[in-house]
Amino acid sequence: MKKIILAIIAIPFSMIAFGQDVTTPQTSANVGSTPIKEGNWLVGGSIGSLGYSFEGENFNINLSPQAGYFISDGFAVGLTTGFGLQTVKDHDNIYQYKLMPFARYYFPEGASSTGRFFGQGEVGITGAKSGGVSDTSFGFGVNAGYAHFITRNVALEGMLGYNYSKSNLANAEAQNGLGLAVGLQIYLGHK
């Protein structure tokens, strides 16, 4: 009798367990050039940025939201803002900010249906504050990256580039160095 009761209980549970379709999360989408068409918007930014300065021997981490508009297919212009923290060897921490217009171009060469290589340049104002002293200066960046589309409108990005700022807060006449950023972008269509 116990075996019959266990079999009656086990059959529905085994049907539920083995009858389920297992779905895996979406990791890419075939989008072609749809997200980077003229008239679309780009919203997102770097959720983390790590860098090392050659002159100042310091480490930094930044958050850089941005928004842009595609003025032609594959070419967007917009504005990047940034907020960050820089630790400097044997000195006070430096709090940073930036406001930089940018231009981004998606290369047709090497493009796939799920991703695109791009180049981005930005020029604008950077600033820093440390120990009650603040400094605002000129800055620019030249970056290369790859956008991998996980859905039709969302892409994960990796970017590597060179950044320059004429700040005097980190015991150097100018700050320059390589930076690595990982971010998320949302592409909004105009139709």
Question: Could you characterize the architecture of this molecule?
Answer:
It contains 1 helix and 8 strands. The longest helix is centred in the first third of the chain and has 18 residues, at 2-19. With 191 residues, it is mainly beta. The protein has one domain (26-188): Porin (Beta Barrel), CATH 2.40.160. Strands 1-2-3-4-5-6-7-8 form an 8-stranded antiparallel beta barrel. The radius of gyration is 24 Å and the shape is flat. The model has no long low-confidence stretch (mean pLDDT 81). Keywords: Signal. InterPro entries: OMP/PagP_B-barrel (IPR011250). This is Outer membrane protein beta-barrel domain-containing protein. Residues 1-19 form the signal peptide.
Distance between the termini: 66 Å
Secondary structure category: mainly beta
Write down the domain tally: 1
Total DSSP E strands = 8
Major β-sheet strand ordering: 1-2-3-4-5-6-7-8
- Poorly predicted regions are none
Q: With helices defined by DSSP (H or I, 4 residues minimum), what is the helix count?
A: 1
Specify the helix fraction band: under 10%
Residues in β-strands, percent: over 45%
CATH class: Mainly Beta
CATH architectural designation: Beta Barrel
Bulk shape: flat
Whole-number mean pLDDT = 81
- Give Rg in angstroms: 24 Å
CATH fold annotation: Porin
Main sheet overview: 8 strands, antiparallel, barrel
Oligomeric state, counting identical vs distinct chains: single chain
Q: Please provide the ordered H/E string of secondary-structure elements.
A: HEEEEEEEE
